[in-house]
Amino acid sequence: MNLETKIALRYLKSKKTHNAVNIISIISVLGVVVATAALVCVLSVFNGFHGLIESKLSKLDPEIAIQPAAGKVMPDGDSVVRVVRRIPGVQQAMPVVVDNALAIFADFQMPVRLKGVPDDYNKMTAIDSIIVEGDFQLRDQVSRYAVLGAGPAMTLNARPGYLRELQLYAPQRQGAVNINDPMNAFTNDSVFVAGVFQVQQKSYDQDLIYVPIDLARELFDYDTQATQVELKLAPGAHERQVMQQASQALGPGYMVKNRLMQQASSFKMVNMEKWITFLLLAFILVIATFNVISTLSLLIIEKDESIRTLRSLGATNKQITRIFVIEGWLIALLGAVAGVILGLALCLCQQQYGWLKLSSSTDAVIVQAYPVQVMWSDVLVVFLLVAAVGLLTSLVTSLTMRRRLEKD
Hints:
6-stranded mixed beta barrel, elongated
């Protein structure tokens, strides 16, 4: 440790002669502590929301989805399945058909999104874990079944075990419409309700219904077409490698997406809000850190006699200036360390006890308390930001200090 750092540490630890200097020093450090802790907590909360969205969407989103690069459907989904099944690391590959339809149950009706899937689709995703009523079943020896999202189940008042069938209507894609008989312009079919799922995401719960893929193809007038092919990876498979091999095997006519890419808009919104909030709090942190300038200015005035003594002992203006630069930086670093510790402690308490609640209603939100997930990369960014701003403020003060020393 060099001489300048030793003297700066001594100034930091020593009690100031004037009480006002002590008070201003404490306020400067507390400002940095509070701003740093706020940054750590806010970034951790956004990380928690990011992880929450990812965990909830992964219940229904496939690990990899293959979609047509242009148009709504791929001409032969079954052939795409055969191609990707030969790729090492692919455990399951299934075609699906998704389109809009009208659902009618007794006196209730609503527009829905039908998703036609193979009968063993529960092996592809974790849909079994979010079934809240009935079972995931699409077919038995006699009948075909549908699995409804919580929204359609409530709107249509349809539940598993009812003897009444759910009527499904979709407009015909081909042929002319007879104005005198408009019902002929629709293809219809019917299924029993086997189960109800709830993933607690509006985009899924609001209008999604699972039906057998052959029913969906009949209803929408498809043969082997599919809107996308979904993949499940084998344990230990490398996602990026599988995606690259699938892209090479299928060519430019197809898009290969992982879960993050499938829900890019959701994750992009969370990330955008996170870093906008970071910039706002960082601005507050900069203002708080600039209070160090006032602390250093008062400290320079108070240590005027010590400065003369140092100069008499042979200290140069550059060495004396460096003492106060280090002093200001130490103040900022002290606030940064204390703020990070305080922020991590608050995050840990929120994880354990959930003090901050999102809502008092148990049905309104996915979780009752703000989710928190600490990422050490965010903590490092916050610490480096405080250190950099602290060094900048100290250098600004050093300019004034150097001019004063040169006058003397």
